[in-house]
Every structure is written in structure tokens, then in C-alpha cells.
Protein 1
Amino acid sequence: MANSLYENLKHSDPDVYDSVLRETDREHETLELIASENFVSYAVLEAAGGVMTNKYAEGYPGRRYYGGCEWVDVAEDIARDRVKKLFDAEYANVQPHSGSQANMAAYFTFLKPGDVIMGLDLSHGGHLTHGSPVNFSGRLFDVVSYQVEKETGRVDFDKLLKRAKEEKPKLIICGGSAYPRNIEFEKYRQVADAAGAFLLADIAHPAGLVATGIHPSPWPHCHVVTSTTHKTLRGPRGGLILMGEDWENSWGMVAPKSGRVKMVSELIDSNVMPGIQGGPLMHIIAAKAVAFGEALQPEFSDYCAQIVKNAKAMAETFLRLDFRLVSGGTDTHVILIDLTDKNITGKVAEKSLEAAGITVNKNMVPYDERSPMVTSGIRVGTPAMTTRGMGVDEMQQIAQMIGRLISAPDDSTVQSKIRQEVKELTSRFPLYPDLRT
Ligand SMILES: *Cc1c(COP(=O)(O)O)cnc(C)c1O
């Protein structure tokens, strides 16, 4: 497939062709441990690279602002049907261009500028869009951040309840980007009810684990759920919004300024488009449909179970090597290593691992005294390497390599030795062999 596609690129634009080819080689030759990344199937790549990129389709299936939408309607309907089945949802919007856009549209549905929101602090594992001052969420809303406990790395729900009662947020956001444990939806809902707040679950990270029942379900606890499609869900880069079974009944309808009372689902749809986006990325929506179809297969459940098994094996190895892990381990695909006692920053660790062909990201740990550009931690995740077929043995081996590099970050002999081991390991688990030269 892709060879013929690249054939045109190769001749018409050798420079971009070269960058694409080198990226493909990089993905094959390195150990990808960034917890938010994954490798999509050839089928997802084909749909994402297809002609639906040409089509304007503002609106929703059956009610578009443009003609000629019959076939993109089919793709979007398939995407919506499949994702509803996958997550046991009653309502789905698959148009958000990204996880951030999904959050923005959801916030605009439930909030007005200046309303109080409560989200997990970015430096405690939250996300930019959960109220960071440099993000739209922090600029438009009045943010009250909550934190995890120093000892446990987990949220203290008694404290959260007390805080929520004082601050009276309109929306509480649960979920995050560097939180290694399952999200306790039920406990958050008790807090939300006591404070009179809506509860939004951002499952961008564990979405695949949620879809396969490995992570607890957000229903019936969360009023609205947002996600990305490209992390554990292993689809194209994008976002989505879901509501569960009792969504219209249990918390009724939201009345707009004038006119007829609208259903919440209608409000979400109109906050995505025309609220914050124009034309949807129909090629990406087609690719989302393909990925949701893949995620409905039994093999995807096996895949997600293996992700967690791999993360636990890796975490155990790190603990044996005397690393400190935030919360002491993991329930998911994420491990957050606290390097505070290791005399190395997250920044230096990231660089030294990268030089050996191991890709991770530096990450703040809770109560970090270093800046976000330096940090005292690294975040490690298993979804991408599990996609390549690696198992517990490989995870243990990789954790050992990380241990050796971190104890000798400036030793170029160690780096080149490990670079060799990485090469050997990656060549046993080929990635996109048809797309490489
Ligand atoms: C990744 C992530 C997002 C945003 O996704 P983008 O597609 O990068 O905008 C939102 N929330 C959480 C918790 C995330 O981890």
C-alpha cells in the first residue's frame, strides 16, 4: 500500500519523503516508552491517508452544511456506532480534532467563563487542559487544583470533599496524564454530588483499558467522558466525547438563553461545531472508525491485558533496582519514576536514555522542587512496545537497561553498549516492515 503512496512523495518532494522515511526508521529502531504514544495498524494508516481529507462536512451525518457527504456520513456513522458499543455509551461525538478539543467542547457545554473548575494539578499528574494557567482552561475558568498525597501518590477523598464543599466548583475533572493508578470514578462522584458539581472523566490515557473492562467503567458515575483516540486506544490522533446510559434522564436538560430547551447531547454537538471547530477531519474520523472496529475484536482485550501485565513487570523490576515509583507501582500502562534520591534530573535521564535509543519523557513528580523543563522524574509506558509484541521478559530487560543508564548517565561506553542491545531487541520485533527501505 504505502510503497506506492510513498512513490509519489519520493519524486515530488524528496525532502519531506526523507523525513517521513527517517521517522519510520526511528520508530522501528528505538524503544518507544512514551506512555501517550502507540503504533496504529496499516488499516488505520490507510484510512488516515485517504481521500476523505478532501471533504468538507461541517455538521453531522444526515444534516451537513455541504453537499456530497453521503460517503463520509457512512464513515462517521460507523465510527459513532462502534465507539458507543465499545464504551457502552448512549451518545458519542467523534469529531474533536484532539483530546484538548474534546475537553474544550465539554467545558463550553457545562460552563461559562469565570466558573470554578477543579482538576488534578499538572505537576501531580493532571493535564494542561485541566486548568493550567498557560492553557485556555486556566485562562477562561477559575481553577482550583487538587493534589495527590505525598506518601501515597493518591488522592485523599476526604480532603477533596472538604475542598469541594468550600470552593463549590461547577465541574470536577478526574483523570490525568501521569497518574499510574485506576481512576476512582465512584469516589469522585460522591464528592461531585456533595458539592453540586458535574463530573467529567478525561480517560485520554486509559481509554483502551476502559473499553476492554480492565480499568473500571466511568458509568454510571460520570456525567460526561472525554478521551483521545491515539493513546492506549491505538487509533489515529484525535478526540471524542461520550455520555452514558442515564445522561439525559438523571440530570435533565440544560436550558439555553432562549427558545426551546435543548438536550445535553445537542449542546455538546453544537459546542464541538460550530462552537470550537469548523470542518471535521473526515479521513481521521474514518481512521477512528477502523480503530474502534479493531478495539471491538477479542485480540484487543488480550492486547490491553498484556499492556498492564508488562507495566507491572516493569514496575517490579524498577522496584527491585531500588527506584522510587510514585504511588509505589501501577494499575495501568503508566509508571512514574521519582528520581529525587538518584542524583539525576528527569532532563538528564531523558537525554541519556535517548542517546541509547530509549525514548521516555521527563515528568514532574508530585511535590517536585525542580521546574517543568528540568523535573525530578521520568514517565514510562508500555502500550507501544506491547503493540510490537514484546512481553514480560523484554520489559524486565528494558527496565534493567534503564537502571544501568541512569546510574551512569555520562558514560558513553554504557550508552553505546545499550544502544547495541536496543538494536538487537528492536530487530526481533519489526515495526512497519513494508514502509521501510
Ligand atoms: C493526552 C491528553 C489530553 C490531550 O490530548 P491531545 O490530543 O494531545 O490534545 C487530554 N487529557 C489528558 C488527560 C491527556 O493525557
Note: The pocket of pyridoxal-5'-phosphate is lined by residues 36, 98-100, 103, 127, 129, 175-177, 202, 204-205, 228, 239 (CB under 6 Å).
Protein 2
Amino acid sequence: MLRENLMQVEENIAKACQKAGRDRSEVTLVAVSKTKPVSMLQEAYDEKIRHFGENKVQELCSKIEQLPDDIHWHMIGHLQRNKVKSIIGKVDLIHSVDTYRLAEEINIQAKKKHIVVPILVEVNIAGEESKFGISREDAILLIEDIALLENIRIKGLMTIAPYVEDPEENRQYFKKIKQLSVDITNKNIDNVSMEILSMGMTGDYMVAIEEGATIVRVGTGIFGQRNYKQE
Ligand SMILES: *Cc1c(COP(=O)(O)O)cnc(C)c1O
């Protein structure tokens, strides 16, 4: 099952890249493994997946301990300040920074470990009330402030597009966030690059790639439906 799913996702990514005239190497597939058992992550690992995304600190730390060292871990979920120190230095990229206070805490913990931590700023591009992320209007000011923190490097933007039946409905949002990243690049802010655009999930990653995604975060399309009910 998982193997077939991965082949399908890989084929779709290749198709979207081709359509957009992009090289496959420009897009990183992050397998979103939240709620899934370690055995399934191991299966994906055996199929050469090296990037995994998780949204809960405890689950993330437990999986890091149980799986091989050459995995790149992505923190994609809302992060509480009191949990920052548990993941600093263990994850390759934090996708979900949306307040200065959170960035400040990351900076403090990074300084203690003498490391520089790469992050993305999460933008609520559709302005949905139910979602985390800074508004498009406030993103630039936040980025200018975070850029002054010495032990953080802003590498780009992340967004979670609305849940839609037809992925074409999200194209407008992917275009908007791409444009925002270009606007930010043009400001030439020290310590800020816009090399990463983390956007696109199972329902819409092909459209996201066509609009410039460099990271797609695919869960259901690889691991199947999630069951949140406690057994
Ligand atoms: C769960 C999740 C995903 C994956 O969603 P699917 O629809 O299962 O592909 C991607 N990004 C974030 C931030 C998530 O929380």
C-alpha cells in the first residue's frame, strides 16, 4: 500500500514539475507522519524517504529516538514556547513560526546550544480564523523583527491553504504567497532568504508545485487516512 502510494505521489510530483518547467530536484517531499506508528515511518524510510514532518513535540521526539539518524525532521505544527527547548537542534526546519515571542524563545534556546536555527514564517494566506499564521499584511514587519535575532535564519514561508474539494481553488493563495516571497526577497533583509516555500498537501500539492512550492507536505496521500480517535 505505502509503496504504491509513494510511487503515485512521486509520479504526480514529476508531472507537476514537468508542467511547470521545473526540475524535480527543486521540490522536497516531506512525508507527514503524524499519528502514524514508527513501523510505517520505517517502511517509508526503506522506500528512501528521508524527510518526515510531525506536528506534536512529544510524538516527534519519541520518533526521532526510534528511527535512523539520517532522517531530516520537520516541525510543521503549532509550537508552544515552553516546548521549544525539547526540539532545538533535533529538527532540521521549524515551519510554523508566527509570532515574535516564539522566535525569541527559539533564539534563546539556539544561543544556549551555540547553533543557528533555520525557520519558516507561517502565513495565514486565506485569512482563515481557525488557522495559525501571521496575516499577509503583517508578515513583512514580523520578518524584519525576527531577522534581528542572531541565532535564527529565516529561510522562507509556509502556508496551510484552505480545505477545498477542487485544488484549483487554492491556486490563488499559492500565487499570493509566492508573490509575497518575491516582495520580501526584493527588500534584501539581512539574515533572510526566501529559498523555501512550504505549501501544498495531499489535496493540492500538484497545484502548489506549479505555483512554486519547494517543499510539499503530504500525509494522507502516503500513509492513508489518519484516525484521531483514541482506541
Ligand atoms: C497534517 C498536515 C499536513 C498533511 O496533510 P494531508 O492532507 O494528510 O496531506 C501538511 N501540513 C500540515 C501543517 C499538517 O498539519
Note: The pocket of pyridoxal-5'-phosphate is lined by residues 32, 34, 55, 76-77, 160, 201-203, 217-221 (CB under 6 Å).
